[in-house]
Amino acid sequence: MRNPPAITSYVDRVTAGPGGALTDEAGIITGDLTVATILRSDGHSVRVAIQHSGSDVWYTLAGSPAPVPAGQLAAYHRDLLGRIRRGGGTRAT
User: Fold this and answer.
1) Rounded Cα distance, 32 and 15, in Å
2) What is the number of other CB atoms lying within 10 angstroms of the CB of residue 4?
């Protein structure tokens, strides 16, 4: 039996809470956002990209790349979405 391929990224939409999410390039962004959490080749850190949903422009979430424990990519992504929903200038770390 072959193992299924490992999941190395998650992409979801979320509405940012008051104070939004902090990006390196554009500062705070708010509203309906798309968040991509991508496991880096080292297997121990993630790159987080964020955009206004429907836009072609992606920004780096401040604090990215961020450490993530091995095997915890899904949990990190869920936690990050929750933090963005709460707002307050969310960072990757």
Assistant:
1) 4
2) 5
Measured CA to CA, the distance from residue 31 to residue 23 in angstroms comes to 14
Question: Which residue in 37, 23, 14 sits closest to 85, CA to CA?
Answer: 14
DSSP SS3 for 52 = strand
CA–CA separation, 2 and 53 (whole Å): 36
Model confidence band, residue 8 (pLDDT cutoffs 50, 70, 90): very high
User: Which pTM does this prediction carry?
Assistant: 0.92
Digit-coded pLDDT (tens) for 18-72: 999 999 999 999 999 999 999 999 999 999 999 999 999 999 999 999 999 888 9
SS3 48: strand
